[in-house]
């Protein structure tokens, strides 16, 4: 390693060191010189159809890989990506957003360049980024650039949220010191505070005295980096384990003591009874948005909970700050004496069958997800777009190591399709070392699909093994349920979904054998038995026709019935 | 008119009073209750495929109609629209961005709702909007809402830029005073300053003494509301009149003294010679970005210019502030004594013919635009997307009242396709009163098209008469020209463009008769003679195949040749 290195090489070397294999984005005249360094650095360049799609894809990649990078151009590119970056912030996905900006001489002279408001102001888009990224920096000189890069990458990892990096177009080739590169970047540890032993002993005391304990694994556990430890805890205790929506896919549902989703009053009655009479709820990575908690009905009471979150542990109403959840959990696992803990009998598990479904039945929400579930294999990724797909996805029983992406908090429709591209690519890169192969399945409504459909062409270009199941119910059914169930504003334009693969450039031979439509449960079951559906190559499309107002039991049906009752009352008056 | 009115009705009544006929946007759970009022108010709801497309469409509508409105939902929706709003700011298009936000009780209690970062913070997206809109307001009580609405609509009109209006989901039905509605909203006039007579006499003095005068009409003249006056001035003086890129389509190119684009060293040599030896350049609505001025080579020297811009008039190096350009121009027209002004002989006009083109020629940039030009009719709208299309569009000779949209400053690729939807819709609404009919033609490269292609389905749904000409040169040719002409990052995925109409839902019969591909000039000419191409119904698609590195003479060819020379030099070393 020489003493000096070009700035772009420094940045990309760091990304490679941190396990990034692909970069997402769109070329633009202020980032082209940076793009020259991507492939030589050993990185794969994914040219997306637009920047929002690129940001969504980077988010998906990051959720599987642990870090991702996105390159856009100043103004036009970065602002198109804003919603995707915000979603990564809301749901804790570390995305390094690298923005190619005008060369320093133009910025310094306040030149009235394109991609600005022609007023000499170059700071406004960076100012906007402060609201949706956890750290921001601008590389403007050789001396400070390496440390700034290291710092911003650490911020992304520490907070598990997106960061914003401005890189003027005349900087990629500038020489910087390569000295830092000899030391791999690591995330600084939280020092053990004096009260750590006390926290541990309080936890152990509660653990040993618990008569009806529960483990609750929420989605921010991923950001805390404690998933392996949690797996050990779940096995060691054998305690009934539940997940909120965000936690689904982070624990092994094949264990007898793992129940999957806890939905309080919107789920299994016996699970609710057990949960609500628990005397200890070990809670990890909580994320208490309305949509992740069934309007906060699944949030444990303070008195019952011990909650591990970012650099704090809360025991009953007391919050211990500046403490590492990972460190305390690690000590807990080391200290745990299995003979002192209870081996409780959890609630009976719900058994899902499809015996009641007839071949001639139309495909309804209540039977569709049960029929699809068996095609998922170990390590697969399943993505369920906001709307009826996400509600249905909550009921899946997941194979070991399968990941599920659902609707958590940001709920930006259209997200899941490019997210699928990113997640599938990250998984393929992970599998390259082992030779394993996995399927990625996206279930998405027709309304959401229209937001970002063009990214199917990038999936095809990347030769990814992706099954896209399109729920065709002629519009935004989830919005119909919330309000305006008969209003035209909840309709979407008519598309011929079975032509997508051909339009988006797949081989004509492939198209013929990898596009299906199902109207009845019998048709669906026959299609699902096809090898090309459940374990095929390339991108496949399965369109399933459903009723415009068909929703599963739970919050959606509750809202729909409420709306109908209000209409009836109004009509009666 | 009653004394009270529901807030949403107040807002939409004001928009209707100001000539808005359609609203763009996407439904979301925080704006559904607002959407209930759109159609009853006499407005047409255009449900777009996504919010960026909706913002682009609203911008296009506004450029034809003078004002437009866009409705998105909190966070996810509004951020997706950000780039489109910023473009409207940069290029002076008044768009009222109405954001449906969570109900006041949820905001006041800092509830951890979806579409937030689940941290109780509700202000960050509004804070972001301050950088890309000219005014912002939040409707939170009945007492202040009507005045806030009036104020923000006036700001949009005064500045001809976008504004941001937050409307909580529990506000649309709140009763507010309707008293204001009796008085139509008007834009406050700039009071005549004491120095106005002096300014006028200085201008007249220069006008009467000019020996080689020029009129230069730039694009911000539209925002100044002086287009009709300029038409009078151009006819009254008969002076040679030029436009920068942004001004193209704002003056009547059928007049003998109107020359179209002035491109300095990148255009006609004799025009440059005349322009550079002028002793007076009456300049209106200047917009001096690099891309609108051929790197500032078309900007008149201070000593020669009298420049009319927002509330200032500049004469030589002296700037008079707080003065109305429209008022001064109006007085100038009234005072002007035609017998005292020179009737100069302008440079000879360039004659464009197609005689040198053979049927077997491949379609090259240098012949394509000449061949297409004759299909445009009076009052038509022609949109040329950033890239080779926009450069070619600058050479069109436009029929009277035709409008041309080109690449000015924001240059966000993908913009022109949804913009076409908005512009065509506004034109159709204008024509409804007269029974006139017009065509809208979009010329767009395949790279740009992929950004926003799904909006073709909304054009189809809206039954608009739009011809889309797709330049298929396998990627981002304009980026290839700037840098990396052989790099893969400037390629795009392969699409079958002739399948677009079918995929996006047009009638199968229509599809067959309204999709064409041309590879040679002969094929192109034959297709262009087809009635369905130049004056057909509905959306039609014409794909033209061009070479990956084919660009017109001018800045693009200059950059390409420079790149090739650098490569050759590098290879020689």
TrEMBL record, chains A, B:
Its EC number is 4.1.1.1. GO terms for molecular function: magnesium ion binding; pyruvate decarboxylase activity; thiamine pyrophosphate binding. InterPro entries: DHS-like_NAD/FAD-binding_dom, PDC/IPDC-like, THDP-binding, Thiamin_PyroP_enz_cen_dom, Thiamin_PyroP_enz_TPP-bd_dom, TPP_enzyme_TPP-bd, TPP_PYR_PDC_IPDC-like. Coiled coil: none annotated. GO terms for cellular component: cytosol; nucleus. Mg(2+) binds at residues 446, 473, 475. GO terms for biological process: aromatic amino acid family catabolic process to alcohol via Ehrlich pathway. Residues 393-481 form the Thiamine pyrophosphate enzyme TPP-binding domain. The chain crosses the membrane at residues 404-426. It catalyses: a 2-oxocarboxylate + H(+) = an aldehyde + CO2. This is Pyruvate decarboxylase. The lineage of its organism: Eukaryota, Fungi, Dikarya, Ascomycota, Pezizomycotina.
